């Protein structure tokens, strides 16, 4: 596509009767620039996602350009749209030794985009690279302390990881220190994608600018602006893909596509906004696993008392807050639990809390407020920066508390640790983005013994909760594991160290002639484009 800016807007317009051209650097041996005129009825699917900038590197271990790496690379296993584990490069697997040993049997004949066959050596190499401190992956930590020999490898005391074993060309074995019921969920994540060892070792960092994977689409070239700045990427269908072939021949992705492009039907998908509704587009929504909580300073009076914290939760009207914060591209859905209720095994609460302002007022009266003393002002700390305007949320929450006779004062914060010396009662708006779809990804960072937020909750819910969390860490059975986290959720609800608010639902505007696009629960970065098709 022709673009005339590298940032978030088009700086100049090319007035050629509104025609949008596609300029990309050819991946063919000649290396010449190829101009691709638009064909609104053609077989090239053009999409803008929620990203606001484009990074022309695709390293899964570093979380770079996840939406693109999802199309180029595969993992041992993957998640379907409903978070079920399904085979990917591993055709099947065995779990033994009480949940400590996972043996993966690779599909035979799977080939990388350069023609070389996938082997168990590529699996070992990719996971070693993920754990290697030199890679600087933020995700290697999920393996280092869990895999046999992981800590020795990360410390440089061993050249390999003892828990990684290649049994033959197509069999890879992984040994965990303790039973790890969430192992497959972890291995399904984008940072666990499998790379071709020899090519990565030969090309070094250059590999990730022109990557080679086994996925349904392969790198085909760059989308460039008139000044030849890289503003997007072009992917081609992989005719040798081992699974079902994509229904579109090409994908062009750029975060710099505009509403004008969508209105002229020069692109097929972009984040929804209210002004797009009149164009007759369809709206597809999903991705409910980003959840927001209002945490309380449990060591600061009067929030050091459970009854006071419970009264705070009864004041809040989540539905109104969600409605106030919702915009075109993101709709917020009220939530009554810390663990996302869309995770398998965790259903929405049948006894939601609040709003019950009369009961909250009664509790606060019994605690001596309003008649003999005024309730202290509450500080409301909001994350600084970010792309979402929090003003409507602050305004609505302030209104709700003022109705209850309590004043809020909003402030920004950059790091949670900066609030450790605040002695007044305060709320902190926190967002939990799951590193992988597991209840531990929410609970441990907020309430675990080593959590950076431990000082905030002052150890609430307490030792019994801590014991359940550690029991869950070594529980091999899925049913018992979920029971443990449901019990932890009940303890949090009982002791109220924080208040769950809502989940963010992403919304995409889709042209009427597009079918097969579905937003998975993990969000738009995990879009599966294999089923996307044009209808004539």
Word description of this protein:
The protein is 24% helix and 23% strand. The two termini are 23 Å apart. It folds into 3 domains: 91 residues, D-Maltodextrin-Binding Protein, domain 2; 126 residues, Dipeptide-binding Protein, domain 1 (Alpha-Beta Complex), CATH 3.90.76.10; 220 residues, Dipeptide-binding Protein, domain 3. Strands 13, 14, 15, 16, 17, 18 and 19 form a 7-stranded mixed sheet that branches. The protein has a 6-stranded mixed sheet with strand order 2-1-10-11-12-3. A hairpin with a 5-residue loop joins strand 10 and strand 11. The protein is built from 15 helices and 21 strands. By secondary structure, the protein is an alpha+beta fold.
Give the name of the CATH superfamily of the largest domain.
Dipeptide-binding Protein, Domain 3
What percentage of residues falls in helices of 4 or more residues? 10-25%
The number of helices is 15
Please report the first level of CATH classification, the CATH class of the largest domain: Alpha Beta
Count of domains: 3
The share of residues in extended strands comes to 15-25%
CATH topology title of the largest domain: Dipeptide-binding Protein, domain 3
Using the CA coordinates, give the radius of gyration: 25 Å
Question: Structural class of the helices, strands and pairings?
Answer: alpha+beta
């Amino acid at each position: 596509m022709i673009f005339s800016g590298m940032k978030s807007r088009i700086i100049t317009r090319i007035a050629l009767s509104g025609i949008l051209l596609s300029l990309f650097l050819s991946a063919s041996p000649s290396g010449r620039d190829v101009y691709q005129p638009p064909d609104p009825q053609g077989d090239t699917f053009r999409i803008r996602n929620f990203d606001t900038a484009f990074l022309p590197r695709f390293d899964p271990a570093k979380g770079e350009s996840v939406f693109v790496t999802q199309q180029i690379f595969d993992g041992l296993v993957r998640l379907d749209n409903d978070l079920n584990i399904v085979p990917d490069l591993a055709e099947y697997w065995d779990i033994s030794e009480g949940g400590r040993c996972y043996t993966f049997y690779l599909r035979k004949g799977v080939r990388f985009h350069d023609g070389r066959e996938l082997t168990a050596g590529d699996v070992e190499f990719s996971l070693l690279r993920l754990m290697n401190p030199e890679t600087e992956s933020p995700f290697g930590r999920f393996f280092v302390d869990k895999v046999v020999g992981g800590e020795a490898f990360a410390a440089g005391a061993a050249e390999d990881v003892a828990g990684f074993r290649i049994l033959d060309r197509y069999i890879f074995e992984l040994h965990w220190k303790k039973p790890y019921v969430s192992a497959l969920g972890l291995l399904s994540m984008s940072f666990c994608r499998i790379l071709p060892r020899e090519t990565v070792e030969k090309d070094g960092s250059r590999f990730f600018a022109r990557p080679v994977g086994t996925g349904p689409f392969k790198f085909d070239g760059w989308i460039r602006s008139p000044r030849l700045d890289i503003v997007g990427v072009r992917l081609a269908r992989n005719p040798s893909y081992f699974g079902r072939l994509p229904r579109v021949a090409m994908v062009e992705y750029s975060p710099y596509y505009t509403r004008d492009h969508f209105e002229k039907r020069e692109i097929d998908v972009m984040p929804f906004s209210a002004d797009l509704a009149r164009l007759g587009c369809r709206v597809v929504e999903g991705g409910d696993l980003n959840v927001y909580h209002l945490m309380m300073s449990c060591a600061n009076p009067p929030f050091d008392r459970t009854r006071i914290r419970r009264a705070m939760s009864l004041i809040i009207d989540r539905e109104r807050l969600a409605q106030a914060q919702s915009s075109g591209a993101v709709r917020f859905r009220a939530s009554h639990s810390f663990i996302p209720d869309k995770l398998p095994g965790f259903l929405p609460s049948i006894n939601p809390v609040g709003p019950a302002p009369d009961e909250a007022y009664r509790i606060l009266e019994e605690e001596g407020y309003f008649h003999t003393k005024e309730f202290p002002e509450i500080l409301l700390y909001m994350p600084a920066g970010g792309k979402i305007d929090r003003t409507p949320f602050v305004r609505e929450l302030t209104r709700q508390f003022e109705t209850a006779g309590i004043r809020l004062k909003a402030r920004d914060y950059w790091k949670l640790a900066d609030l450790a010396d605040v002695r007044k009662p305060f709320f902190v708006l926190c967002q939990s983005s799951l590193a992988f779809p597991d209840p531990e990804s929410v609970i441990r960072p907020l309430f675990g013994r080593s959590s950076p937020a431990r000082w905030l909750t002052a150890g609430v819910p307490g030792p019994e909760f801590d014991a359940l969390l550690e029991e869950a860490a070594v529980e091999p059975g899925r049913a018992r594991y979920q029971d443990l986290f449901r019990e932890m959720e009940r303890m949090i609800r009982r002791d109220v160290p924080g208040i769950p608010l809502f989940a963010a639902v992403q919304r995409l505007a889709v042209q009427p002639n597009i079918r097969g696009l579905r937003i998975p629960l993990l969000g738009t970065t995990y879009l599966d484009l294999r089923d996307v098709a044009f209808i004539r």
